[in-house]
Amino acid sequence: MIPLYYNTRSLWARRLSTGLTVLGLGLVVFVFSAVLMLANGIESALASGGDPRNVILLAEGSTSELMSNVERDALRALGSAPQVASSVEGEPLVAGELVVPVLLPRGDGKESNINARGIGPESFAIRPTVRLIAGREPRMGTNEVALGEALVGRSPGANLGGELVFAEERWPVVGVFTAEGGAYESELWVDVNRLGSAFDRPGLSSVVVRTGSEQARDAFIKGVKEDPRFTLEAKSEPEYWAEQATWLATFIRVLGLFVSFIFSVGAVLGAMITMYAQVAARIGELGILRAVGYRRRSVLASILIESAVLGAAGGVVGALGALATRWMEIRTLNFQTFAEIRFGFTPTPGIVVAALVFGTLMGTLGGLLPALRASRLSILDALRA
To answer: What distance in Å separates the CA atoms of residue 6 and residue 294, rounded to the nearest whole number?
Structure first.
């Protein structure tokens, strides 16, 4: 038998030390959970913009659109593939696109590196998740720009009806679009030919193709790989954007977990000191438990359960604190795309469970040595104390 009722009363009787221990463990769990949510937020922000029926084609060996250069001649050949879907007008849903980084001034006097995407007539139709929430699409052959929702207000003129200035030209803003939180929301879209002319870029960064189904997508990718005419690398849109998130998400996850580990050592030591103090203050009580028939292993389990409960409570506090950050937004530079992206803390059930397990584990480790000490006390010595 384990004296659980005694443990409950003991925790309540020592409310101050119990609360401080829970708070200390909770802060570590908060850092642990927030790091995982942050890394997941980056991956979600980039990968959510991809449509599983879309294929992105880059120059062979390129890891991103910024490093890729695709000849325009490939556009017509790719559009004739049988797996390519058609628009309501019967046109193949294929778009040659150009991605160029541009510097835009911010309200605080600094500058932001933003990706400008040169688009074709079918670019909006290819991506159903990208939809206008204000204004209209930019007209082909003009300098008209559509802004991603994340860019609105980030720069002077970055709003519907405003005007941006880059590449020594003026670019009127005629539309604002959303992309369900995806990476496209941090881009500005303009006619591919006008953007290429402004930056002296005759080629394309990528070709985006919408296929009829996921099975057709796989067949299209296989066909591109086997066709000797192409020196292109084809991958699904979600796969491409997931790769763009890998480096930054891994960096944040590794750095954050290292910091969490350092903090957790301190938290475990804090829990251990607390439990040692509680055991020292309760030697007489523990002796009485032994005297009335509780065995050593019962006392050991009792102290371990008490410390595990403290850890679990810290896990709950930390997880709740981390969940409160889900409405916060962060902007940073993605070192793979060299552009600013917007993302938030994105929780998952797995992260919440991991936080609770992490807190419980810290509490249990902190109570292990004090529990062993308590279980080894002789009845006579405990009662004398």
So the answer is: 12
Which residue from 128, 142, 125 is spatially nearest to 193, judged by alpha carbons? 142
Predicted confidence (pLDDT) per residue in 15-63, tens digit:
777 788 788 888 888 888 888 888 787 777 666 667 889 999 999 888 8
Q: What is the amino acid identity at position 64? A: S
Confirm if 66 and 204 have CB atoms less than 8 A apart: no
Render pLDDT for 62-73 as a digit per residue (tens, 0 to 9): 888 888 999 888
CA dihedral over 267, 273, 276, 280, signed as positive or negative:
negative
Residue type at 313 in one-letter notation: A
HSE-CB for 293 with a 13 A CA cutoff: 3
Return d(Cα 286, Cα 302) in angstroms, integer. Answer: 10
Cα 41 to the chain's mean position, in Å?
Answer: 2
Q: Give the model's pLDDT for residue 227.
A: 84
**What single-letter amino acid sits at 358?**
F
At residue 218, the pLDDT reads 93
- In whole angstroms, give the CA distance from residue 191 to residue 189: 7
Question: What's the rounded Cα separation, in Å, for the pair 362 and 193?
Answer: 59
* pLDDT, position 370: 72
pLDDT digits (tens, 9 = 90+) for 367-380: 777 767 766 766 66
